[in-house]
Amino acid sequence: MLILAVIVVGLAAGWVAGLLVGRGRFSWGQLFVVGLAGSFVGGMLGSLLFGDGLELRPSGLVGSVVGATLVLLVVRTVLERQAGKSPK
């Protein structure tokens, strides 16, 4: 059941981050990976901000979306630089 919850939260966080950053640029698979990575990034940032150290704790959907948005912005910037475009 936990694995299913992680998959659903990762997919939802990636989808929302895709909406915030810009639709149509990333596939569902990429958004899923970004959502999972964002869950970890959001969880670590939440732990650091609230003084829990670097323990892995459930970050919730908001932390996952924030983390996924940050990861997606970094990925987009790297891809644009590789393509020779300047980031916006």
Automatic annotation (TrEMBL):
Primary subcellular site in the record, as a coarse category: membrane
UniProt membrane topology term: Multi-pass membrane protein
InterPro entries, per database record: Transgly_assoc
Domain of life where this protein originates: Bacteria
This protein's record includes keyword Isomerase: no
Transmembrane segments: 28-49, 61-79
Location(s) in or outside the cell: Cell membrane
Presence of keyword Membrane: yes
Keyword vocabulary terms for this entry: Cell membrane, Membrane, Transmembrane, Transmembrane helix
Family: Belongs to the UPF0410 family.
Protein name per UniProt: GlsB/YeaQ/YmgE family stress response membrane protein
Native source species: Nocardioides jiangsuensis
